[in-house]
Design a protein that fits this description.
The complex is a heterodimer of chains A (279) and B (460). In chain A, the strands form 3 sheets. Chain A has a 7-stranded antiparallel β-sheet, sandwiched between helices. Chain A has a 7-stranded mixed β-sheet with strand order 11-10-9-8-12-13-16, sandwiched between helices. The two termini of chain A are 24 Å apart. Chain A has 9 helices and 16 strands. In chain A, helix 2 runs parallel beside helix 9 and helix 5 packs parallel to helix 6. The model of chain A has no long low-confidence stretch (mean pLDDT 94). With 460 residues, chain B is an alpha/beta fold. Chain B is 32% helix and 17% strand. Chain B has 16 helices and 15 strands. The relative contact order of chain B is 0.13. Classes of the chains: A alpha/beta (279), B alpha/beta (460).
């Protein structure tokens, strides 16, 4: 059992939790993920590591409440425990030798983009962060991001904060104006990453994306998370989750991500009803 | 006087047309009367050839004589000297290729039903004996076991009996390895696996779930930071192979590992499960091993019409004969001498499986007849689900994070007869060394390695 030591609501649908998991905290690196099961009969769900404290032996996760599993996780409070919490899984984001990087984050993906930006910043890399949210109420980690960035560009779909528009607009603008990024790292919804790649491909700027397919075990034993990358089948849980964005088949990944949509809708409804009853 | 009837007592089982709609155990087990009648068929041969066929050399005539004497707990204790998982092995061992293949009664007539008797004894013990086993005197040494499957459980059990402090590290949230995620409930109820694991814990074995060795902790750290004196790797062969044919990433295509993990480990077959599974209408499974049979029979229980596609003929099917017979009784169709070449899709989903018809070539020098395509003979099977069950290989995670650990060209760890790897103090056994094999072979390897680890530590 893994004790929750901190819980904070970052916005109406996004929660931060700091969880006691010394073995995970010991080794965790930005870009890696964990798999949790909130309760004994819960589903295994992957979440990227948003932070860690090796001394305290804790790991921070930031999650959006999108379905039954995250709904149930969000119903747990400080002092209570998550039933299972395994990691760190997957490969850490490669940061060696990078001098100038654009980190592009979308929505809750910013929770994963932030530790990557911070690590790059810590090793002396120039970081341009371009983050996008639907509106001002959904913005997370603004202060943290600003502190880790040489240039912080905030976008909202409705213009209620920062600039109005999508993240690809300022990215393309910067590249056009002669910014020479060694690399662009994009983390967010599949559709956003796909559009980032479509943008950077035009200018041939290397782009790394953090993929988020459906997973079961997260250790390479089932292939549920497989993707086509450069024409080959890869398992995101062990070969990734980071991949060369130019090589990823995004349309296939989006189709695979929707396999259980009807089930998920029903499960969420049931979870909501169950949680309501408990109150 | 021995009972000289030629045939075995048949196993009471659920009716095929009932059981193919539920996940309850197919075989119901002998009654006391049937067990006594069957035990009386054993001649108690002085040379007991049956024991040579058992990978862990259970004292078979001895335990059967205890049954004859109605001393069922005594029979259990005889088995327990050699095997820590009798309720499991009595159910899933291919006895027809092991102990029962050597039984003298099998020369004229059917061999003694050793597996069914082992199961009877283990189930009797589990139902009637609640006293915890005596904890052995600690010997002051520490060993780590990686993987809580059959080889790790056997190794840990033997080390614990010798007084070692043993910790098993398991990557998943439930112990048991393939017993938990692979073999379905209808062949091996998970409550039985849990009971056997609880028995190990009572012996003092510590099981740490949710720890991925190679990620959470490396093998080097087990020695340097955690102070273990020897390490056993029983991490199995869990990496699924795909066919690398077009359409394999369409929705509705599963590896058998994923399909079975969702069903067995995550209980996705149960109403109200939080883990989803698709309920296919027409499922096609490729492969001919036990895993293919398990996947096919599971799909059937979810309500599908099921076809197994296999590139050779019935004789070459690597699955246990009993499993194939059960599959046929349950209404599973075998499409032999066919090999899938493409998964045909529509709107991102499986619609059909295109197969190449095959024929068997003349035997080569080794006597093996390999399947060759018959040109132009291609057919299509309508399907909304395609399950790939063409084998697994060892996960490279431990090898890639441990210096000095050699593997062969199939990714299997190199280990000698006793399980010693190329790295000092590191032992290995089971599927991680042999590639996918059987539960009892893995247990045998775990036992051998435990003896070698004991010798290694005592002579250090």
């Amino acid at each position: 059992m893994y004790k929750i030591v901190r819980k904070e609501s970052l916005n109406p649908t996004v929660t931060l939790m700091e969880i006691e998991a010394p073995l995970v905290a010991r080794k965790a690196e930005p870009g890696q993920f964990i798999i949790f099961r909130a309760t004994e009969d819960g589903e295994r769900i992957p979440l990227t590591i948003a932070g860690y404290d090796r001394e305290k032996g804790t790991v921070t996760i930031i999650f959006q409440i999108v379905g039954a599993g995250t709904e149930i996780l969000n119903s747990l409070n400080v002092g209570e425990s998550v039933h299972d919490f395994v990691g760190p899984l997957g490969n850490a984001t490669e940061t060696d030798g990078l001098k100038k990087v654009a980190v592009v984050g979308g929505g809750v993906g910013c929770a994963i983009a932030y530790p990557v930006a911070k690590k790059l910043h810590d090793i002396g890399c120039s970081v341009t962060s371009i983050v996008g949210f639907r509106n001002k109420d959904l913005i997370i980690l603004e202060d943290e991001f600003r502190a880790a960035s040489d240039n912080y560009i905030l976008m909202t779909d409705d213009g209620s904060a920062g600039e109005k528009g999508v993240v690809t607009a300022p990215l393309e603008e910067l590249i056009k104006n002669g910014e020479e990024f060694d690399e662009v790292i994009a983390i967010g919804p599949l559709i956003m990453m796909k559009f980032v790649v479509m943008t950077t491909k035009k200018y041939n700027v290397k782009t790394v994306v953090s993929m988020n397919p459906i997973m079961v075990d997260g250790t390479g034993m089932c292939g549920c998370c497989r993707l086509t990358v450069g024409g080959k089948t890869k398992f995101a849980c062990v070969d990734g989750p980071d991949f060369d964005g130019f090589e990823v088949d995004f349309d296939e990944a989006m189709a695979r991500g929707s396999i259980y949509k009807p089930f998920e809708l029903k499960a969420r409804e049931e979870a909501c009803n169950m949680l309501k009853k408990e109150v | 006087m021995p009972n000289m009837r030629m045939d075995k007592n048949p196993m009471p089982s659920q009716d095929p047309n009932v059981r193919n709609k539920n996940f309850e155990e197919v075989a119901l087990g002998y009654t006391e009367e049937q067990a006594l009648d069957e035990a009386a068929r054993c001649l108690n041969c002085p040379k007991h050839p049956c024991m040579d066929g058992c990978p862990v050399q259970i004292s078979i005539p001895e335990f059967i004589q205890k049954i004859v004497e109605k001393d069922y707990e005594g029979a259990y204790q005889v088995i327990n000297r050699s095997s820590s998982l009798p309720a499991v092995c009595g159910r899933v061992c291919p006895q027809e290729r092991q102990c029962e293949s050597k039984c003298v009664r099998g020369i004229k007539g059917e061999p003694v039903a050793i597996g069914r008797l082992e199961r009877f004894v283990a189930d009797w013990h589990n139902a009637n004996v609640t006293a915890a086993p005596e904890k052995p005197e600690p010997n002051g040494h520490k060993c780590a076991v990686i993987g809580c499957g059959p080889s790790g459980l056997a190794c840990a059990s033997d080390l614990a009996k010798k007084g070692y402090a043993v910790t098993i590290y398991e990557a998943l949230h439930t112990p048991g390895g393939v017993l938990a995620y692979g073999i379905p409930e209808f062949r091996l109820p998970k409550a039985i696996v849990q009971k056997e694991v609880d028995g190990l814990k009572a012996l003092g074995v510590d099981i740490e779930t949710n720890v991925v060795i190679g990620k959470s902790i490396t093998v080097d750290e087990l020695f340097d930071d955690f102070g273990y004196e020897a390490v056993f790797i029983g991490s199995g062969a869990g990496l699924p192979r795909f066919m690398n044919i077009p359409g394999e990433n369409l929705n509705g295509v599963y590896s058998a590992n994923e399909f079975l993990t969702r069903i067995n480990l995550m209980k996705a077959f149960k109403e109200g499960s939080t883990t989803p599974i698709e309920h296919p209408k027409k499922a096609v499974i490729v492969g001919g091993g036990n895993v293919a049979m398990d996947a096919a029979r599971s799909a059937k229980r979810l309500g599908a019409d099921v076809t197994i596609v296999y590139r050779r003929s019935m004789e070459e099917l690597p699955a246990r004969k009993e499993e194939v017979e059960h599959a046929i009784e349950e209404g599973i169709v075998f499409k032999l001498l066919n090999n899938p070449i493409e998964v045909v899709g529509e709107d991102g989903r499986v619609k059909a499986v295109r197969c190449q018809e095959m024929e068997l070539s003349e035997p080569d020098e080794s006597g093996r007849r390999s399947p060759v395509p018959i040109e132009g003979k291609i057919n299509e099977i309508e399907a909304d689900c395609f399950i790939v069950s063409i084998g697994t290989s060892p996960n490279p995670l431990i090898k890639s994070t441990t210096d000095g650990l050699d593997t062969n060209n199939r990714g299997c760890l190199v280990a000698d007869e006793d399980g010693a790897t190329t790295r000092e103090g590191v032992f290995a056994g089971g599927d991680a060394v042999t590639g996918a094999a059987t539960v009892i072979l893995a247990m045998g390897a775990g036992k051998k390695a435990a003896a070698a680890m004991d010798a290694y530590i005592q002579n250090k």
